[in-house]
Specification:
10-stranded antiparallel β-sheet, 6 helices, Nuclear Transport Factor 2, Chain: A, 3 domains
Length: 418
């Protein structure tokens, strides 16, 4: 066997080969995956670290619920419930109503506070730490005044909407002037109005409908004014610029918005019977189901079917005055003989019962046995402002007029009122 002896000439190549093998081996070591060692440790959290976590549960009161049952549901201890009721000497806390909102605030597992919200202006806070404490919270609303004008082209209601007046304010305006103006029969194209009203807000949210402070209505060349003032009975009422009350014993119309389809006429020919038969009232055409309101305060004299009148309600008022409402579709719940009703209260709904060709309301105004045209009868007014309050009324009136005049100068309809 022959032995290989490297030639001196090949030695450089041998060294290069060995060096290359060493480099490749070293690179393989660097690419080898190293499995990391995982060290885990379980820590127990201190209870004190979770005691500051706050939670809140909200409950809205429903019909038939009482505070004791609600407190039991939200795990208020009997001892704390007893303490709360004992501190609630006026009974305002216990007197909850449907819609009231309760908030139960806890820190960890401990109840720390209860909020009872009775509306946007009134709430009660019950603190449990360090002891039971009831705090009454009352908020004052911010009143935003708004001025609007309107020109009637075809409908008072549409004119109001066209000028971005809230529907509630439109209806209030019709009601305020409703003792003098029949908004069904008296309105004409070209009539105009201007109003200043204020709307209450709390925390940037509107809480009630706007309330009219002063208004003017121009109808058939007549100018009517209304100014809000708190009268002797300590409630808001409306008076004209001279302090005479706008309120009268009766409203002009038993419906808000409709139209007169047949006037008071003792010689009218009946559309069904085709005979001359006196029409001793006014017919208001309206959709079936339209609410009918009592034009004055009184007592229900009769409710029921009355020959050609169909379903009928008769109300007895003071001074031998009665009003009759006929052809009803149905009566409002609770309306029966002997029940007292207030002016403007809904008593029934428009229909076509009896001898009627289409849904409408037949309305009569009687003084004793005499039937009177309700569109023309003179209505007595309520008491004017007391002389002792006249200076205060004039001061408030002048303030509202000044504000209205300033805002009218910036209104596009300014020329209509010059």
């Amino acid at each position: 066997m022959s032995t290989y002896k490297p030639n001196i000439r090949t030695l450089p190549f041998v060294f290069i080969a060995i060096f290359g093998i060493l480099i490749i081996y070293d690179a393989g070591l660097e690419q080898e995956k190293i499995v990391p060692e995982i060290i885990s440790e379980t820590l127990s959290l201190d209870i004190q670290n979770t005691s500051n976590i706050q939670s809140r549960s909200i409950h809205t009161v429903e019909q038939g619920e009482n505070l004791s049952l609600i407190f039991e549901k939200y795990k208020v201890s009997l001892n704390n419930t007893y303490k709360i009721f004992r501190e609630d000497k006026s009974g305002e806390i216990k007197n909850i109503r449907p819609g009231d909102r309760l908030e139960f605030i806890s820190s960890g597992n401990d109840l720390t506070e209860i909020l009872i919200n009775k509306g946007p202006l009134l709430s009660y806070k019950i603190n449990f730490v360090p002891e039971i404490l009831i705090i009454k919270i009352e908020k004052k609303p911010e009143f935003i005044k708004t001025f609007k004008t309107g020109l009637i082209e075809s409908s008072f209601y549409l004119a109001g909407l066209k000028n971005d007046i809230p529907e509630s304010v439109i209806m209030d305006l019709a009601y305020i002037f409703g003792w003098d103006i029949d908004f069904v029969f008296d309105i004409r194209a070209g009539d105009r109005f201007k109003i200043l009203y204020e709307t209450p807000y709390v925390d940037g949210q509107q809480i009630e409908n706007g309330s009219i402070l002063i208004a003017e209505f121009y109808n058939k060349n007549n100018r009517y004014s209304a100014i809000r003032y708190k009268g002797r009975n300590k409630k808001w009422e409306y008076f004209n610029e001279d302090g005479r009350s706008l309120e009268k014993a009766f409203l002009r119309a038993p419906l808000d918005f409709a139209y007169v389809s047949s006037h008071f006429n003792p010689n009218r020919r009946h559309p069904i019977l085709n005979t001359i038969r006196a029409h001793n009232g006014v017919d208001y055409a309206a959709k079936r189901g339209t609410p009918i309101r009592s034009t004055g305060e009184g007592v229900i004299q009769s409710v029921g079917w009355k020959s050609g009148y169909g379903r009928t309600i008769v109300i007895r008022h003071g001074g031998e005055i009665t009003t009759l409402y006929a052809h009803l579709d149905k009566y409002r719940a609770g309306i029966s003989k002997g029940v007292k009703v207030s002016q403007g209260q809904t008593i029934g709904y428009v229909g076509d019962s009896g001898l009627a060709t289409a849904p409408h309301l037949h309305y009569e105004f009687r003084i004793g046995e005499k039937r009177t045209d309700p569109l023309k009868v003179a209505l007595p007014s309520a008491s004017p402002i007391d002389k002792s309050e006249m200076d205060q009324f004039k001061m408030q009136r002048n303030n509202y007029i000044e504000i209205s005049d300033q805002l009218l100068s910036k209104d596009p309809n300014e020329k209509l009122f010059q």
